[in-house]
Design a protein that fits this description.
Length: 230
Amino acid sequence: MKSSSVKAIPIKGFTQALMGHFSQLIQSRRRRSYVYARLLLLGCLSLWMLTGLVLPAQRRSAAAAEVELARAANPWSFASFPVENFQAYTSPFGYRQSPFGGEQFHYGLDIAAPLGSYIRNWWEGEVIEVSDDSACGTSVVIESGEWQHIYCHMQGYVTYEGGSRVMVDPGGNIRIREGGTISTGQPIGRVGMTGRTTGPHLHWGLKFESSWVDPAMVLRAMYDDQQALR
Ligand SMILES: [Zn+2]
């Protein structure tokens, strides 16, 4: 499973699980308005992606801009699925019974994958935090414009090098330095069992303008855009 090349992972074969997640939401009448609110938010997010991609394109050559504009019509297709060897979505975003007791809000999406599977950066950005001393375990937070993406329960640990904090996973050949820039699809860690977890999975959290967003909603948008480009 060793792979260190930079490549975005397309979404394929995950639709069944995602469709299930969405139809479950839509079937529940109590939550219908919640679903509409989510769709409205998704529309706003897409608009933000679109303006962010189209404006820089105007400054480039006509041919390059044409390609960019075509792809910008499907902006979410640029993103990478965040983990290799997908097995299942094991816990959605929202209220749930905590495996450790009581009800809690789960601020992310749990994606099960075998121990050691590579985690890949969803969207290019800057590393704003590496950590290994919370329930999130060994983790990395990356900022891309108004977005923050959080990856928890990875292998490895945090150390200091020349005054900066670095997340190191020697077995996976991973070194993630705070303040560093990470490309879309770049390996940023491997699935582990650090922090509060009952099995190997990636806990993936997404924030837009400081508010938590359901990652499944973003995966759905990515899937739709990737299909549109085929
Ligand atoms: Zn989780």
